[in-house]
Description:
Elements (H helix, E strand, L loop, with lengths): L31 H11 L6 E6 L5 E5 H17 L7 E5 L4 H12 L3 E5 L5 H10 L2 E6 L1 H8 L11 E4 L9 E2 H6 L15 E7 L7 E6 L2 H13 L6 E4 L6 H13 L3 E5 L5 H11 L3 E4 L1 H10 L1 H4 L9 E4 L6 H11 L3 E5 L9 E2 L13 E2 L5 E7 L2 E4 L5 E6 L9 E2 L3 H5 L2 E2 L2 E10 L5 E6 L4 E3 L2 E3 L1 H9 L4 E11 L3 E10 L7 H15 L7 E4 L5 E2 L6 H9 L9 E3 L3
Parallel strand pairs: 1-11, 3-4, 3-5, 5-6, 6-7, 10-11, 10-12, 12-13, 13-14, 27-28
Antiparallel strand pairs: 1-2, 8-9, 9-20, 14-15, 15-16, 17-18, 17-19, 19-22, 21-22, 22-23, 24-25, 26-27, 29-30
Amino acid sequence: MAKPAVSERTNRPVPWADADGIIDAPEGSVNIAYEAVDRHVLHGNGAERALLWLGKEGERRDFTYADLADASARFANVLTAHGLKPGDGVFSLMGRVPELYFAALGTLKAGLVFTPLFSAFGPEPIRTRMEIGDAAVLVTTAQLYKRKIAAWRDQIPTLRLILIVGDEAPEGCVAFGPAMAGASAEFETRRTGPDDPALVHFTSGTTGKPKGVVHVHNAVLYHAFSGRVALDLTPGTIYWCTADPGWVTGTCYGIVSPLVNRVTMIVDEAEFDLDRWYATVQREKVEVWYSAPTAIRMMMRAGAAAAAPYDFSSLRFLASVGEPLNPEAVIWSAQVFGQPFHDNWWQTETGGIMIANCPGDEVKPGSMGKAMPGIEAGIVERSGDTLRQLDDGEVGELVLRPGWPSMMRAYLHEQARYNKCFVDDWYLSGDLAMRDADGYFWFVGRADDLIKTSGHLVGPFEVESALIEHPAVAEAGVIGIPDETAGEIVKAYVTLNPDFTPDEALERDIRGHARKKLGPAVAPREVVFRNTLPKTRSGKIMRRLLKARELGLPEGDISTLETDET
């Protein structure tokens, strides 16, 4: 395969360029599905278990790499039989069922572009994304079709095929089961080019429509490399990424990276259930576990006693992503599981892990870790189109030097918006951070979340972490509220652990705890109790939504909202 041995910018070798044993594409082309399944069959590893699927009701199905090669070839043939061409958009709308994974791999094998959607989306978010993405195909279930699609399907002019999971389909749709059964298991994988579009993931902005982030087939180089370096994925590893493929983590590190690295990946159809999760780790002897801070905080909320009956000795590496992992969660996991969760940082736009606490690294609780090998990260202060690099210990915007293979290549139909992400040969993340003298990066907050109070710049994550150290607090969201004297004051919203009752005395005690930890200038002036906090489906607390509702401002795009405060 044609791939650069050195960085065009620095003329130095880049670590993902030498992917012998991971990437095996023909010269001049690369296809994610070939690297994920076909290659393993070709090299005699087709009988190895690729996917263990756990159904909601206790079903259990194993799929080998040969099984996935067969199913993805059949799906690719279904697409071509209906006249679909390379570059057409295939959308999935379903839970974590095997058909989703067949569709993803088959779409890529045929050279089409795959876009997974959360099954919990309402009709309008689904429609908006399908319009932006020029959807040609939708794969969904009969129930979701009836509830969310049927009323407006004819208003998407590009939509040509709707496949319904199962053996029957409503009028105007095609049943997935019979179509697959009637398709050939032989398909010559498309020789897609490195820069051919492969995946589109939608990410919400504070205003306007969601952004369709385009990734290409060459991203597989970085998925392969980062899976090995940041997550310790090696052939035969029992690996569980708990993320839904509707979230970029659930595709990049829940489908592509594990399969390319020839692991056995676990897919659980059910949503979070503490005992089910703990039992799964024990029963399946999970070795590498990749999850989200929200789930980890829910484990903490249940307490160490809930974990005590289970055997976690199979675990060798734990990682977390989605939002910063609070220091107390790192310490708690080390005590309960025998090792800490390792935080890492990346975005939909980066397409892969950029900063990580890698296996073997010293973990500094609360830090995102160090820049991945080959990734150049910096902290800058921006003035117009000029960036000034800041010294260690200074807070500024986290930026990355472009050039890694999984970097986004476009926002669909929004070139100007895409161009604004790059200034002075840096990618602007929009996140504020600080780098210490050892090269570890520390998250401060989104640039638009920063609170300016009485001359102090306050990062909400710092305050939230201090609040969670109080024994009563399970989760916290912190925002700035306008104040005539101070400019802004800090206000916190918290949920409580079991056995704690919200009242004035507890509110005072939590504020007092924060003042001792942070000082009066930084500590919240007010603490509000909530049953839940608004979160995205990837587990991020939506601070901007808390602030919009507090101040009566427009809420922006809330299509990714999973839970709301009550």
